[in-house]
Amino acid sequence: MALDKPYKNVPGTTIYDAEQARKGYHLNQLAMSLMKPENRARFLADQPAYLDEWPLNPVQRQAVLDMDLNTMIAEGGNIYFLSKIGATHGLSFQQMAGSMTGMSEAAYRDMMVGGGRRPEGARLKDLDGWTPPSTEKATTMRPDAPAKYTSALFTSHVPAIGAAMDLGKTEEPYWKQVFDGYQWTRKWAKENTPDVVILVYNDHATAFDASIIPTFVLGTGAEYPVADEGYGPRPVPDVKGYPEFAAHLAQSIIQDDFDLTLVNEMVVDHGLTVPLSLVYGELGVDEEWPVKVIPLAVNVVQYPVPSGRRCYELGKALRRAIDKWDGEELNVQIWGTGGMSHQLQGPRAGLINKEWDNAFLDHLIADPLGLTEWPHMEYVDEAGSEGIELVDWLIARGAMDDQFGGEEPSTDHRFYHVPASNTAVGHLVISNPVGRATVAAEDAVESVGAPAAEPAETAAVANA
Ligand SMILES: O=C(O)c1ccc(O)c(O)c1
């Protein structure tokens, strides 16, 4: 079920996609550096010395020295980036484009004056009668898919939880109540380590500042350093990505009409590292997380934010993308993080709505489609201005088997507790049949406190 990339075969044409972007990353960034006059001057004064500052491969390096645009493009360059190199040499776009055609500058200009190159004979359809691919969206699962979505994990990602771990406070009574709710999960996670976690979270004005507000960001990079959010970076490992799988997901999801922002380089904040710490425990900077992570960040910082329905639909597009993977066998988990009820601002700060939070959990488990009807105002009004983070969770849920005609997930673990700093903590592990939990019932955490719907401070249900 290879992804449809007919654009690769258009004659005399190289389409810049995530695969090319990965290959040409440093070449294109070098070109971008020439937008500064001082860098242009240094480049022109001593090109080899300037290129020494960039980790280009030898073919890319020689192509820049030769101003050979065809080779630069084959090596992952994109003309919009590369034009900065041409401009530094004083070349016009017409000179640059003409230089790639094998024609003299004058002949190319004359061709353009004469009406330009005719498409006949230079189109894919002239070569092999290509017909457009079907745009139908799968509504059922692919039974033999090499990538299996095993389990969804949901958790709050309160920064103070990370700080409690980093500062060795987990045994203090205040924090012990929080961490007790994750003991089951830690055991389960040891026996159910996926190859990759698609980790849905929201950036907290960390990687993205007020200059750019992308709605949905998919990380296609190889590594994500831990951010310094003002307290210094958390002493935890940097996060390793999975560029090939992420590029595949991007290709499929965008063809499925979701316009993701693709990010090759970004820092990750507590929204992403706290869930990893909660599940995999204290790991030092020199250690490695046991999983590759593909970050999927949702804007909830500046309105308008995406609706729960939109997030759920993105989850469906994500599952279709997972099912289309034809590479190595993969065990995939999707984590939905953020929330639960909390408000960090204004006179209403400290708002906690246990009843609403637990109704959200109930619906997430049993009625995700119904949950998509809840408008964003409901989240803000009932769960606080920062409670809106809960829309993140619908992505993981929309991708599950039962939303594609398969079986309902099992609820393996459920936990709810108030407070962690200003926030209610909610946590769920639910699994598709292929990922049913392997932790023995007797190893599971006993139920703590009253059932979830009661106004108790803490409630955990293991292997429910
Ligand atoms: O409760 C808190 O302290 C807190 C602070 C920052 C956050 O992003 C958050 O989700 C919670």
Automatic annotation (TrEMBL):
Gene3D superfamilies: Dioxygenase LigAB, LigA subunit (1.10.700.10), LigB-like (3.40.830.10). InterPro entries: LigA_sf, PCA_LigA, Xdiol_dOase_LigA, Xdiol_dOase_suB. It comes from the Bacteria. This is Protocatechuate 4,5-dioxygenase subunit alpha. NCBIfam families: PCA_ligA, PRK13364.1, PRK13365.1, PRK13366.1, PRK13372.1, PRK13377.1. It comes from Microbacterium aerolatum. Residues 152-425 form the Extradiol ring-cleavage dioxygenase class III enzyme subunit B domain. Residues 27-113 form the Extradiol ring-cleavage dioxygenase LigAB LigA subunit domain. One of its GO terms (molecular function) is oxidoreductase activity, acting on single donors with incorporation of molecular oxygen, incorporation of two atoms of oxygen. CDD domains: PCA_45_Doxase_A (cd07924).
